[in-house]
Structure formats: C-alpha cells, structure tokens
Specification:
Blueprint lengths: L22 H5 L23 E4 L5 E4 L5 E10 L2 E7 L5 E5 L4 E3 L2 E6 L7 E2 L3 E2 L18 E4 L2 H18 L2 E4 L6 H8 L7 E5 L7 H10 L7 E5 L28 H9 L6 H14 L8 H15 L3
Parallel strand pairs: 1-7, 10-11, 10-12, 12-13
Antiparallel strand pairs: 2-3, 2-6, 3-4, 4-5, 6-7, 8-9
Helix pairs in contact: 3-4
C-alpha cells in the first residue's frame, strides 16, 4: 500500500504657566510694551505632526492633495520608487508615491512600506511546521515558479509557507484568474529546468476551472507544469471556520457575490471593496499556522513546493 505524504484529501501642548518672573513679566512685558500671546493659545498652537504608518493591506487612507480615499491594495516598486495602490469603494484603483501627504482617521501620516515579519511558531518551527533555519538568508530566486489565482491566495501562502519559500528560493506569482493560465504559460515557456506549479480554486471534476486547466496543460511539454487545487469556491474557505467563529462556512445562494454573502452571514460590513479587504485581513490575522488550514489546501501547497524544487 502506498503512502500519500501529502494527505488523501484532494479537495501638547501644556497650559504654560510662567513661574519665577515678576507680575509685569507674567502679564506679558513691561509697562507700555507689547503684550505676548499666552502660551498654548490658538496663535501658537502647533500643527499636528505626521507620524509614520505602515501601509498594510486594507488600511483606509486619504490622499490630501487629491482627496482620493481608498484601501491599500498593495505596495510595490515602480520607476525606482515605492508606490502604494489604493482602491476606492467603487473598485477603482489609483497609485500614489509612498511617503507624506496622507491622512488616516483624521490624522496626518507618512506611509512607509509594511514590515514583513516571518511567521514563526514555538519550538523553532515555522508556520508551515517546518524546522526554522536560524539566520538563513533568502536564496536567489529559482527559474521555477508557483502561481496562485489571486492576491488573497498569495497572502495566505506567504503567511504560512513564506519562510520555507525564501529558503528554497521559490517565487509565488498571481495569475489573476485561471482564465489566464494558457496565455501565461505560453509567455513563460516552461521547461524541465523552469517548471510551474499552479494552485487553482474550485478544481473539481466537471468545473470550468478543471476544463481550463486541462486545456492549458495540453499546450506545454509533459512534466513541466503541475496543476493542483482545492475544492473551495474561494481560498477563504480553506481557513478553518472556527477561526472566524463559525461551525462551518455557510452556503451562499447562486447569483450572490460569494464574499459579500459570507460577510452578511458573519454580520460584518460588506458594502464596499474596502469592507472586503478589511474582512480578509481579519481572517488572515486569525491564521496562526498550518493547523488553522484545511488539509485539502495544505497537501496541495506542499506538493507544489516539492515539485518546483525537485532536481530536473
């Protein structure tokens, strides 16, 4: 009997009192001289100073110059500088230089890149359960890649497997939907030395995703691409429902946008894309390690990592 190592489940200002001076001094000067404004008055009140704030995904900010309000989608480098991409309530995005000129909750801030902290569990283990390599530096990226469908998939993989991927030199990239798989493979040109592992949502027999994946695999050399998936409509469901206070993820009626339906069931705000972004960050924060994910996702990701790191 063979052993499936990946698991069988496929699916100030003070008041300013003046002490030690004469009555004339306390009154603002000598007789006949100009009176000084009291310390702490409106005339001398300091303008609020900007404070540094990490541009974490989902943070809602306002650009002072344009009045644009949106949630942080991502921070990236463009033209040699860091920029932040903001998405407004209508789903429109706009890019701004990272730095001063923003407001958060009515206070001025200087947006700075978020700090990526490696997720560690106790006993020297990473969030994926692997033994942590102390002091290890990220390796030069391999030619092989792991592709996931969207941003939420990428963030979840980074949180749980990020340490392992950096040690192995594996880069995770977004497909922006399995519909783009065949086109992206044609551009990438996979070979036995530059393989691609693909993680797909709702990869079940008879689904659109299964058909698109099979069609794409026919266009590449055998053994250069591995497509695996989980059975869930969205990667949110790969997080164990207990982490968000549910016994099970609810069924959403056909015709209702899935994420908005889930948020209504949870009683969370769901009117805008910023609400969805904040909800996902809340769900992502609830994930502490691999133990908070369903086996049907865990096994597939581990298998993809082994596939793209195996010798050619």
């Amino acid at each position: 009997m063979s052993y499936d190592r990946y698991g069988s489940d496929v699916l100030a200002g003070g008041s300013g009192g003046v002490g030690g001076g004469s009555a004339a001094g306390a009154a603002g000067g000598s007789a006949g001289g100009p009176a000084r404004a009291p310390r702490g008055s409106e005339h001398h009140r300091r303008r609020p100073e900007s404070t540094p704030r990490a541009a974490q995904t989902g943070l809602v900010v306002e650009d002072v110059e344009t009045g644009w309000v949106g949630a942080v989608v991502r921070v990236e480098k463009s033209g040699g500088m860091h920029v932040v991409v903001l998405e407004d309530r209508r789903g429109r995005t706009r890019t701004f230089p990272l730095g001063p000129g923003f407001w958060v909750d009515g206070a001025p801030v200087v947006l700075v890149p978020p700090v990526l902290r490696p997720a560690k569990t106790s006993n020297g283990r990473t969030a994926s359960g692997s033994r942590a390599v102390v002091g290890a530096r990220a390796q030069v990226a391999r030619g092989s890649r792991i592709w996931v469908e969207g941003k939420h998939d990428a963030e979840l993989v980074e949180k749980v497997w990020g340490d392992d991927l950096r040690v192995e030199g594996v880069v995770v990239e977004m497909l922006d939907g399995v519909d783009n798989l065949a086109e992206r493979l044609a551009e990438f040109g996979p070979t036995p030395e530059r393989r691609v592992g693909v993680l797909v949502d709702h990869l079940v027999p008879g689904s659109k995703e299964r058909r698109l994946a099979d069609d794409a695999l026919r266009t590449v050399p055998r053994g250069t691409v591995l497509v695996l998936g989980h059975p869930y409509v969205d990667v949110w469901q790969a997080v164990k429902p207990a982490r968000v206070g549910l016994q099970r993820w609810p069924q959403i009626e056909r015709g209702t946008e899935w994420k908005h339906g889930i948020l209504r069931e949870l009683g969370w705000p769901c009117e805008s894309q910023a609400d969805v972004a904040r909800a996902w960050q809340r769900i992502l924060r609830s994930v502490r390690s691999f133990a908070d994910l369903e086996p049907s996702l865990l096994g597939r990701v581990e298998e993809l990592i082994d596939y793209v790191t195996a010798p050619a």
